[in-house]
Amino acid sequence: MTRAKSAGKSRKKKSDKARTADRSKGVGYAQGHHASFDWRNLLPILIVIAGGAAYHNSYSGVFVLDDDAHIVNNARIKQILPLSETLSGRRPIVDLSLAVNYRFGELNTRGYHAFNLAVHLLAGLTLFGIVRRTLLRRPFQDHVKQAAPWLALAIALIWVVHPLQTQSVTYLIQRGESLMGLFYLLTVYCVIRGVDARYRAGWYMGAVVFCALGMGSKAVMVTAPLVVFLFDWTFLSRSFVEALRRRWGLYLGLGATLIVLGICGVIRGVLNLDTRAATVGFSYKGIAPLEYLATQFGVVAHYLKLSLWPDPLCLDYGWAVTRSLREIAAPGLIVVLLLALTIWGLLRRSWLGFAGAWFFLILSPTSSFIPIKDPAFEHRMYLPLAAVVVVIVAGGYAALQAAAARMSWAAGPRRLIAAGAAAVVVALSIYGTIHRNRDYHDDLVMWRDVLSKRPENPRAHLGMGTALFEQGKSAKAKKESAEATQAFVKAEAEFATAVRLKPTYADAHYNLGNALAENGKLDEAEAAYRRSLQLRGRYPKSFYNLGNTLKKLGRRDEAIEAYQNAVRLNPDYLIAYINLGNTLQLQGRIDESVEAYRKALGINPRYANTHFNLGRALRLQGKLVEALEEFRLAYHYNPNHPSAKQSYDALRERLDQREPD
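The structure assignment produced for this chain is given below.
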């Protein structure tokens, strides 16, 4: 009798475990776990289709804003090997992904966009898995568990196609945010899977690996270990102590991934108080920590508004520091109230409390008291947006359930209303995302859009001026035209506006100098370059362009000094070495010019102009045989070089006519 009871209890225990496993997997649940195929497994395909539709026109996007510094002019991504060089930056995983893109397509943006979209879609699929599996656990009621796949689908769909996500997907360098977001979601997903898995260690090891990859993508990942623990405490464990006791090894591993931030130099960058060029952390002196915290009340409130109504979106806010109590009051009240509700919900182990913690903790590295040069950027909402969408969808579902009970609706009409509401939101979001993607097709269009929304943003005027400047150079490369001249004039006006709005903006003075030089205002250009160097002395491009201007003004010795400063600050500055050599040659300093050309060839031995100029210098030294070889190499590397073949033939003839010794 005892054995029979024991066997019965054992079978009941196994049955309970089997049901728990089915619920966590979501396979056949509600119809019976014996079903061989659950058609709801096809729901993720809808996420891929919707995301592909929303971003089908993103492939035409160009490089904008920080793309130039981190992609176009990033020397680390120009090769994959050695890995020690590629992975030497503060976001090594991002740089490695960019290096792969560069290897297969150089600066063709389509490959970069394809990678960004793939990351985003994978993140959406992972979010779907997280939400679905979470809704199958406590504290959710049976009707929520039965609707779990559909609720997860609605949340993932809206999150993937939401227009607020465009800055993390279509703005190419912000793959750092989406890549970190993918690894963040995969970390949480692995933990959920590990709880009910037969071989938990493998899933937990996966969580640690993904967490480490996230740390190497962006420092916001620093919040992941704490968020995972709060998820465990809210949904997976019975108590705080049980979470630590059962998964102490997991949390030890997740905590150890913080070492990655130290290796990448992120921690040093945040804490170093002596770094003059800092743009983030306590070493940045543009805004005090308390001022930054006060400013973030308005920023976070703006993020919430964009989550509900994503218009107008702006690439570069140039958000002003908040210094008055009146500006803080209203957004501060909203944020503090939401924080209080989050803490209250967490203490009650409510899913709403966890949603609030997800939102505030993931935003905390960029929206707390740690100063950052730019207080607001939309891509920072990439992961926090998931919490907002969860609350909205869950709230809509609860309201529909209440209305259905009150109105005695059958299941059919209720499902139709839910599906219709979700479809409308998704369709409107897809339209908004497609419309926003068009702004990324042309940097001139994008900067006009920014200026229409933030006319007092000096960086927007700088961006607009740069776009106009490049347009003028493009037109001028084809032929001298009034259109090109007009572009340079407009660019000068934009740079001048940027200088007026922010007189200490070194980049604005530098670009103003470029426009003035193109417009023939050499004295004013010199003054602009010198002002940029006063504001930021270690500025090789300013020294280089100052040298070009001084050379045109006939002040060659000063030009030589400027070029020398440029190559001292940037030993790989090829064109600066060439112009230095040319100017030294004009001054009759032939030996020094030869040395400059040889250094240029050490940087790029296949550059025809360098070989040609070195050949001329060697000819002046009387080293005719060496000069002949340099002319030959110039012609070899560029058969269309205007003078290489002619110089080679003339020198060859001269050597042939020379009497033998």
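Interim note for the steering committee: Confidence is low (pLDDT under 50) at residues 1-35. The radius of gyration is 31 Å.
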